[in-house]
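Exercise 7.
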Amino acid sequence: MLEFFMGLDPVYQALIATLFTWGMTAIGAALVFTTKTVNQKLMDGMLGFAGGVMIAASFWSLLAPAIEMAESGPFPSWFPAASGFLLGGLFLWAADKIIPHLHPTSSMKDAEGIHPERKRRSTLLIFAITLHNIPEGLAVGVAFGAVAAGFPSASLAAAIALAVGIGIQNLPEGTAVAMPLRRDGMSRKKAFMYGQSSGAVEPIAAVIGVLAVTLMAPILPFALSFAAGAMIFVVVEEVIPGSQENGNKDLASMCLMIGFTVMMILDVAFG
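Solution. The predicted structure, written as tokens, is:
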């Protein structure tokens, strides 16, 4: 796999990697063809696992390399990581407030900024997951851009491991969109199409991330940290509460730890 990626332009590397993560979203959404509901414990465990993967990826694949890269820059080594991390969280917080959406685990009465209407549920759900997939695609693009920029702390194997980890955690995201739509009476085909399309933004964000980094290499530590902050905001604001609100706190917590461990192993072993 490494040999295949090494011969490609970084834009194509990031594009292929995020087509994989998009495909994993589609696999999660495809569960609507086999069932109208999914076991709640399984769903909460999958969400907890996804949260662990995102937390580990935020540190091992994004923050730690950002700090290492900043050591040779004009700023104190902590400054790009700290400022970029906070800006990433603030960006997602502002987007959450500005863009009306519905959280996948919420009822129709919980729509933010829009009067609840059944016919708008699909649009609100897509807004929510699409919004939260932006930092994931950006993180993959920035990781491949860092390799192309020649930073010693960045490696192609680590960028691929990050894409694999994000792909794994995209499975429950696709399910979290498609299943509520199916329960509301939407056809299997339409529920699947809405569910998988929520991952379409990741290749776009990845290409933007690669181009930004390769054209403006000095911003890389800030870009890595920005993606990390945005991902952590998603985990704290959406993923962890969603995994624990049905009473399966212990299961979700243990799955989060397993997800963190798996992503840590992927990053350390291949990074």
